[in-house]
Predict the 3D structure of the following.
Amino acid sequence: MLLISDVKLQPGFTDKDIQSKLRKAHIPKSAEWKMRKLSLDARKKPDVHFLCSLEVAWPGEQDYLTANRSPHIRETSPIRYIRPEHGSAFLPSRPVIIGAGPAGLFAARLLAEEGYAPIVIERGAPVDERHQDVAAYWRGGHLKPDSNVQFGEGGAGTFSDGKLNTQVKEKNGRIHQVLDWFVEAGASPEIRYWNKPHIGTDVLITVVRNLREEICALGGTVRFHEKVIGLRAEGEPRRLTAILTEKESGEIQEIPACCAVLAIGHSARDTFEMLQQEHISIRAKPFAVGVRIEHPQQMIQLAQYGTLSDQLPVADYKLTGKSRSGRGVYSFCMCPGGQVVNASSEKEQIAVNGMSRAARDGRNANSALVVTVGPEDFPGEGALAGVQLQRRMERLAWECGEGKVPVQLLGDFIRNQTSRKLGEVEPDICGGYTLGSLRGALPAAVAEALTDCIPEFGRKIQGYDREDAVLSGVESRTSSPVRIERDERMESPDLAGLYPCGEGAGYAGGITSAAVDGMKVAEEIIRRYRSWI
């Protein structure tokens, strides 16, 4: 098989255009081809075009390679996931997965397929029930602490567009397997090759449900509305023997568990506290906080592409800068044609996030604009100092918005004055919002860093610093504020059999990286134990 890279395609291309490119390169019509990578190149406007890499195979490919020495043509092999060999140790109880976000679901998916019959414990609701709870909250209903944008089947990523791009580099084929399982569950096959793949919140609901049903069909069990409240251990050094759970009814259960995957997500603050009480090593780590910013999507299209062509994908952006004080400022979780969402998970607190549907057809583009903070910004408060910072910000945002999402025009934010009326940009927010001031909810250093860098971003994207761009806040859940320690075998050094993983444990930053981390932990269990079934 050959890989042909840097094939240029015009907007609106079809399979016939690809076949024509192959013919011009003297590749026979009988050759089989498949897209491996597709990206958009808009660096030299108005020459906006796609670049792709193609896998091509036919009987004469070796002779062709010998005769065509080109840096854009090389031999390749299909990407395949390398599965671990099963261990020989006896497995006295079924593996338990704590949390049904991407890390937990993909750990469970692999364990179930390999015959380990995992039990998934999820504090929140099944995805369809969860979707109804979230929609009711956005309409003005009561917040359910265990069924909201942060908690429930699918994790926080279910309500954040389903972006699958990642900075993770790995050669074991795990990312390829994650994408395959997503496609099998109902995601578009385009995610296998598109440079910035996404699924869309509306499609993710079906995908997550199908993932769970496949886990169950393969011998796994998924239990909802059940929260882990304690761990049981014995021996010295300590080894896990069981976990304690509490159902919505208040019923306490003890589940035998010699190994448990701790995939709790970045907002499981009460579980972080429980782990500290169980003497599990946790430390504060850097993360980022800030606001959401909204612009008209058409403005972003023109700035990025120089055209409003409907043959181009909805435009996104990525921005980075440094404030005068040296703090990093950057865009995060950019949602083209998306909505800002009230992503709160605790009463009398406000946190925001962004999401997009699969079509990305909303009127606005939104993104987090965040500033790096670290333990040096909250000294003396211990391992959960970052959690306390988040809570303080979210409480202040709730007070600023009188229970609703507070919004402020960019010009007013920079001048440090309260917004009284909107300009041309109309917010697209899921949940109630009100005009006001955001500075009171942000640490002064964060507000100053944003004020420093936004004008610079306006020089990179025309109109980005327009005075009527809408800010909302606070964006406080960019990543976990803690790291739960693990050793080279991915176990807690304080409790053998406990496997911290994913975003909540501080080892991932998005859906794909969390899924991959969940698979890595599952592989360690597989390498150690014989299968259950």
Summary: The chain has three domains: 2-75, 96-283+480-528, 286-475. The two ends are 38 Å apart (CA to CA).
